[in-house]
Design goal:
With 475 residues, this protein is mainly alpha-helical. The chain folds into four domains: 1-73 and 231-315, Rossmann fold, CATH 3.40.50; 80-230, Rossmann fold (3-Layer(aba) Sandwich), CATH 3.40.50; 317-374, no CATH class; 383-474, Arc Repressor Mutant, subunit A (Orthogonal Bundle), CATH 1.10.10. Helix content is 50%, strand content 10%. The protein is built from 20 helices and twelve strands. It has helices spanning 19-34, 53-66, 81-93, 104-116, 184-194, 207-220, 250-255, 260-269, 282-288, 303-316, 319-332, 336-344, 346-356, 363-374, 383-388, 391-406, 412-426, 430-442, 450-457, 459-474; strands spanning 6-9, 38-43, 75-76, 97-100, 142-145, 152-157, 161-166, 174-176, 199-203, 226-230, 233-234, 299-300. The strands form five sheets. A three-stranded parallel beta sheet has the order 1-2-3. It has a three-stranded antiparallel beta sheet with strand order 4-5-8. It has a two-stranded antiparallel sheet with strand order 6-7. Helix 6 (207-220) links the parallel strand 9 (199-203) and strand 10 (226-230). It is elongated, with a radius of gyration of 32 Å. The termini are far apart. ATP binds at residue 243. Monomer. A motif ('KMSKS' region) lies at residues 240-244. InterPro entries: aa-tRNA-synth_I_cd-bd, aa-tRNA-synth_I_codon-bd_sub2, aa-tRNA-synth_I_CS, aa_tRNA-synth_I_cd-bd_sf, Glu-tRNA-ligase_bac/mito, Glu/Gln-tRNA-synth, Glu/Gln-tRNA-synth_Ib_cat-dom, GluQ/Sye. Its EC number is 6.1.1.17.
């Protein structure tokens, strides 16, 4: 029976869960789910100065919001330091690693000499075969692995193909520092082995690390996991993704009004494809995903495509769910007027959402569009809306107010008939009447159907808002 698939996502808690990390987590998650395996979560918190509990929380919250659940409890790399040291000592005892007593000054001289000779700066192996009796007094040594000095180290990568590193270009790198703490390179190998990781899916910036990690695997006689190094995400201009492109934390995307299913769908398409399919469910993603279909080239982040995709998912979402997301988003952003307006007008907001969905690409746009429900009189007018309420527009409103007051049936069809009859009698196009009505009733030039708006906010509120504007005619 074949070994069950175990993937892992291993972020460093030195900041938020950035978008590249989220995509790495997604690919690990979807691959494990496809094959009925497990995805484990390891927090690589060995950098004690930069690792924070707040960052750990942000990573866990970001993954939970994205719907990427992990198996078991998150593992702290820092808490496994004794195990890392134990394995380093095992390598030392087996003669596969050695103590190095080089001073910082010696290492600096080594680097400078290598640079002067036009070679890459690397350790020259001077303590590799020296007797410990030559060790200087009072110096705590580091432990270095004995890397192969000839031949090749081959990474059989599922994305990049066969990648060959010449052993002569690798030095005897440190696996345990002089204070007894492990290096990242060593800790990763021990953790992946102990966690039973079968597949390592990560960014291709780790490809050179793979060669060094294989050296440790081979020294220990451990099986090397299957590796898949995925290209990094670039900005629309082809440059490395930065904050101006969208290299923000996952929580920033939530606050900008993107839905998790839209972000999952979009991230999956950044580096992976299933034919020409652009929109697919998470279930389809799990069914279709394969490492072979991952792209070798870098992907470009595109906010326009993300916005269009998000608009699709907003149109597909249940109004009740969108209402809850709108309330949560308004609360998280400290938009108290919107939060209270939505909470205090839940029934009206829920009734309005189906009218808003086709007009919005983000949850923030939904909130903005819903403001007509609870905005206080007299309405603040957007510049374009105010321009529609000139002499002619206000005259139409003033003429319609008494006709609206006389309506017994306050319904879309009744209001529609009233306005159409007025436009025909006045010999003006319907838009010339409807547009000033929209401006007066919502303060905007974009809203749901204006007759629907009038029914949603009710007769009394509609007349109040129209009279506020009609009063300007008399003034």
């Amino acid at each position: 029976m074949s070994q069950p698939v175990v993937t892992r996502f291993a972020p460093s808690p030195t900041g938020y869960l950035h978008i590249g990390g989220a995509r790495t987590a997604l690919f690990n998650w979807v691959y494990a789910r496809k094959l009925g395996g497990k995805m484990l979560l390891r927090i690589e918190d060995t950098d004690r100065e930069r690792s924070t509990e707040a960052a750990v929380s942000a990573i866990l919250d970001g993954m939970s919001w994205l719907g990427l659940d992990w198996d078991g409890e998150p593992i702290s790399q820092f808490e496994r330091a004794d195990r890392h040291a134990e394995i380093a000592m095992q390598l030392l005892a087996q003669g596969k690693a050695y103590k190095c007593y080089c001073s910082p000054e010696e290492l600096t001289e080594m680097r400078e000499a290598a640079r002067a000779a036009g070679k890459p700066p690397r350790y020259d192996g001077r303590w590799r075969d020296r007797d410990e009796s030559e060790a200087p007094e009072g110096v705590k040594p580091v432990i270095r692995i004995k890397a192969p000095q000839s031949g090749e180290i081959v990474v059989e990568d599922q994305v990049q193909g066969r990648v060959v590193f010449k052993a002569q270009n690798l030095d005897d790198f440190i696996i345990l520092r002089s204070d007894g703490t492990p290096t990242y390179m060593h800790a990763v190998v021990v953790d992946d082995h102990d966690m039973g990781v079968t597949h390592i899916i990560r960014g291709d910036d780790h490809l050179t690390n793979a060669a060094r990690q294989i050296v440790i695997y081979q020294a220990l006689g451990w099986d090397v996991p299957v590796m898949a190094h995925i290209p990094l995400i670039h900005g629309p201009d082809g440059a490395k993704l930065s904050k101006r492109h969208g290299a923000m934390g996952v929580e920033a995307y939530r606050q900008m009004g993107y839905l998790p299913e839209a972000l999952r769908n979009y991230l999956a398409r950044l580096g992976w494809a299933h034919g020409d399919d652009e929109i697919f469910s998470t279930a389809q993603m799990v069914e279709w995903f394969s490492l072979e279909a991952l792209n070798k080239g870098a992907s470009r982040f595109d906010f326009v495509k993300l916005g269009n995709l998000n608009g699709h998912y907003i149109r597909e979402a249940e109004p009740v769910r969108l209402y809850e997301v709108m309330v949560d988003t308004a609360s998280e952003l400290g938009r108290n007027a919107d939060y209270l307006g939505l909470v205090n007008n839940k029934t009206t907001a829920l009734a309005a959402i189906p009218e808003l969905q086709p007009r919005a690409k983000t949850v923030l746009e939904l909130i903005d569009l819903a403001q007509f429900i609870y905005t206080e009189r007299p309405l603040a007018l957007e510049e374009k809306a105010a321009a529609l309420l000139g002499e002619e527009g206000l005259a139409h409103i003033a003429a319609l107010v008494p006709q609206f007051e006389a309506l017994q049936d306050w319904s879309v069809s009744s209001i529609d008939a009233c306005v159409r009859a007025y436009a025909e009698t006045s010999d003006v196009k319907l838009g010339k009447v409807a547009q000033p009505l929209r401006a007066a009733l919502t303060g905007r030039t974009v809203s749901p159907g204006i007759f629907e708006v009038m029914v949603l906010i009710g007769k009394s509120e509609s007349l109040g808002r129209l009279k506020d504007q009609a009063a300007k005619v008399a003034a």
